[in-house]
Amino acid sequence: MSAYPDIDALQDTFTASRIALEQAVKQHIPEGADVDLLLGGEWVGPYRVLPYEHLAAGQVKIQRGSNPERYAGFAQLRPYQPDEGEAPA
Fold it and tell me: How many CA atoms lie within 13 A of 76 on its CB side?
């Protein structure tokens, strides 16, 4: 504890919330899942959810095919919904 107990209490609440968020993201967006990414108002996919190393405020590491890895906020993702006749890559 620091010399600022009011700030300590806020820090404890923040830490608990972040841990809960990270657990929920891992549960609902599992590693290896195919997801769509919201880009410029359009859903683009499929992207593959990569192994979780560390989350930063709900960021998920994804990759599409051989393209570079990228991070996206969980709110920018949804389960992959292929267009009719389209198969996951």
Answer: 20
Distances (CA, A) of 87 to 34, 41, 84: 11, 22, 9
Helix, strand counts (H, E) of the chain: 1, 5
Could you read off the pLDDT of 18-46 as tens digits, one per residue? 999 999 999 999 999 999 999 999 999 99
- Please identify which residue in the block is written with the tokens 């549960």: 27
Place of tokens 């389960």: 79
pTM exceeds 0.90 for this model:
no
Contact 51, 29 (CB under 8 A): no
- Neighbouring-strand partners of residue 59: 73
Q: Which two tokens stand for residue 81?
A: 């919904």
